[in-house]
Write a structure and sequence with these properties.
This protein is α/β, with parallel strands linked by helices. The protein has seven helices and seven strands.
């Protein structure tokens, strides 16, 4: 993208879960479109590497040690972004975990981790950012949900529940703030080639998830980053509220 045609010049974005996968790709895409980017995650070494890549491309970057399950840390990250990068125009709620598994025989710690990260963490970040966006009369909140937020499946019950919560929260927020210039969007990926499945603790669920991905041409993180970029580069009067993006090979 040439310097003269960058649609996000002058805007500031904050991306959670930016140390790998969709978050990393999204930070690169937004910076490539001209945005200054705050990158938040728990893995400092990964953030250091990403920040170096972004700075080498000429982007303004702020690194944030961020665990989204820590509400004060969420608010501090938004405050630092505004003070050090000069504002906040785009929040990408990407941090999440996918601990698939049956409900019968589950380790309920997996449930707590998913709900704390996928739901409460997203809500904490949104709460920290939204009032400033309403005050300035503009902004984009983009949350990475999942096809699992539309279709419940055996073996994914609590992950499904977490993503249905994201979708419901986002639609309610959209109705609350759309008349005040703030857009709320969801990107709902199908199978993406990321490290999420490697964190699954139930052996059978991990094997099933990895086997499903191996049987198709999965999406790449950059595919989802392009979807996010599409949402936030629409004219102000256009709000793309939901985008479901599945591999061509994925039936459900």
């Amino acid at each position: 993208m040439s310097e003269s045609t960058r649609p996000l010049d002058g805007r500031v974005a904050l991306v959670t879960g930016a140390s790998s996968g969709i978050g990393e790709a999204t930070a690169i895409a937004l910076a490539g479109a001209g945005a200054a980017v705050a990158i938040g995650a728990r893995r400092r070494d990964r953030l250091d590497a990403l920040a170096a890549t972004l700075r080498d491309s000429g982007a303004r970057v702020l690194q944030l040690d961020l665990d989204v399950t820590d509400e004060p840390a969420c608010r501090a990250s938004v405050d630092r972004t505004r003070s050090e990068l000069g504002g906040l125009d785009i929040l990408v709620n990407n941090a999440g975990v996918m601990l698939l598994g049956t409900i019968v025989g589950a380790d309920t710690e997996d449930w707590r981790r998913m709900l704390n990260t996928n739901v409460l963490g997203l809500m904490y970040m949104t709460h920290a950012a939204i009032e400033g966006m309403v005050e300035q009369g503009s902004g984009d909140i983009v949350s990475i949900s999942s096809v699992a937020g539309r279709q419940a499946r055996k073996g994914a019950g609590v992950y499904n529940a977490s993503k249905w919560a994201v979708n419901a929260f986002s639609e309610s927020l959209r109705q609350e703030v759309t008349g005040r210039g703030v857009r709320v969007g969801l990107v709902e990926p199908g199978a993406v080639a990321t490290e999420l499945s490697s964190h699954i603790t139930q052996p059978e669920a991990k094997q099933a998830s990895q086997a499903m991905a191996a049987g198709m041409r999965t999406l790449q993180p950059e595919d989802i980053a392009r979807a996010v970029l599409y949402l936030v580069t629409q004219p102000p009067h256009v709000a793309v509220n939901e985008m479901l993006v599945r591999p061509t090979d994925q039936e459900r």
